[in-house]
Amino acid sequence: MAEYSIHAGHNAFVPGAHGYIKEEVVNRQIKEAAIKYLRLAGQTVYDDTDDAGKTQNENLAAIVRKINAHSGLTLAVSVHLNAGRGSGIEVYQYDSKTNAVAARVLKNICSVTGLPDRGVKRNQSLYVLRNTVPPAILIECGFVDTKKDAAIIAGKSDSVGKAIAEGILGSPVKTVGTTKSAESKKSASARTNTLLQRGDQGTAVRRLQQQLIQAGYNVGSAGADGVFGPATEVAVRALQKRNGLIDDGIFGPATKQALSHSAKKKEGATASAIVPYPGMLIKRGSRGQDVARIQRALSLTADGIFGPKTETAVRSYQKRHGLTVDGIVGPKTWNTLF
Ligand SMILES: [Zn+2]
Q1: pLDDT over threshold 90, residue 240
Q2: Is the pLDDT of residue 71 over 80?
Q3: How many angstroms separate the Cα of 142 from the Cα of each of 115, 147, 152, 312?
């Protein structure tokens, strides 16, 4: 059995390309899948991804150091995503030693994604290809700033990883021998990788809308109607912004995780604190228990005095939840808060 090294480029300190998706996030999902399938096929695989380097040079040097620390590797593989608003897949090689594997990997990824084949490209200036001892290829798995590429790549990261593994091996990875639970886990993860976006309809959209409503977001006057329209998009963007994600309005794996997290948090909050509306507007200059309650809900210092900071926080809360942005807590804002 052969030994391989795989890594995903960039890290949280030195992020890769950002567009509709983040390179350093999605390339890690692809890398994980490639490793999983190679190991399923009985291969030894080292994950030489670097999550510690604080500069691009540190990151690249660490990756090369890790790769060169192994001896007798058959191949080192670098997983990246492209930028520049193009479309398709390309594979970089240092020299002809990797002709066959580069061509197989490229063909496989194109076939599972349906994205254009941009070819195998010779490049002797890429740091990782130039400095690694074993033969190496660098894969650009689609464009983060092209909507179609990004949606396909993020939605099919598992299949892309499998395509890479099978391209490396030159044969399909048999998963028939895996247990039922591994298979159902696989299909569950395939389901969670499906993207929802404006124009989509159906039960998955309805479920998303129900979760958004439960988490306190406004999906429009029609409620959970199963149609991903402008209001649902606004709600998804607000959720993304609030959770530090790229606010593209596309509901993918990271946004899904953020939503289930905020739904749980909200559930806990409502269970412990359903508070009836006090019956009067609470605004700049108001004082007392109700003000303190609002401040706690907005993670402010609960001094019970409705000053400018509280007003600003109320405004941004109202904006996030599709309420009238007036900085005044009336029944609608109160009932959304509690
Ligand atoms: Zn990159």
Answers
A1: no
A2: yes
A3: 8, 10, 9, 41
Residue 95 Cα to ligand 1 midpoint, Å, equals 20
Distance 31 CA to ligand 1 centre (A): 13
Distance 141 CA to ligand 1 centre (A): 10
| Å from CA of 283 to ligand 1 middle | 49
In CATH terms, is domain 289-337 a member of 1.10.101.10? yes
Q: Could you tell me if residue 285 is left (phi over 0), alpha (psi between -120 and 50 degrees) or otherwise beta?
A: left
**pLDDT beyond 50 at 270:** no
Alpha-carbon gap, residue 88 to 110, rounded angstroms: 8
| Fold entry, domain 3-190 | Aminopeptidase (3.40.630)
CA of 108 to the centre of ligand 1 (A): 20
What is the DSSP-derived secondary structure letter of residue 270? H
pLDDT tens, position by position, 134-143: 999 999 999 9
* 4-19 tens-digit pLDDT: 999 999 999 999 999 9
For residue 297, the model assigns a pLDDT of 87
- Centroid of ligand 1 to alpha carbon of 67 (angstroms): 17
Pick the CATH number of 203-271 from 1.10.274.10, 1.10.10.60, 1.10.101.10, 3.50.50.60: 1.10.101.10
Region of residue 17 (left: phi > 0; alpha: psi -120 to 50; beta: else): beta
The whole-angstrom distance between residue 249's C-alpha and the CA centroid of its chain comes to: 13
Residue 240 CB partners (closer than 8 Å, separation 6+): 246, 247, 248, 249, 255, 258
**How far does Cα 173 stand from its chain's mean position?**
26
Query: pTM of the prediction?
Result: 0.56
Q: Torsions phi, psi of 5, nearest 5?
A: -120, 130
Nearest to residue 37, comparing CAs of 184, 175, 215? 175
| H or E stretch covering 188 | helix 180-192
Per-residue pLDDT tens digits for 74-128: 999 999 999 999 999 999 999 999 999 999 999 999 999 999 999 999 999 999 9
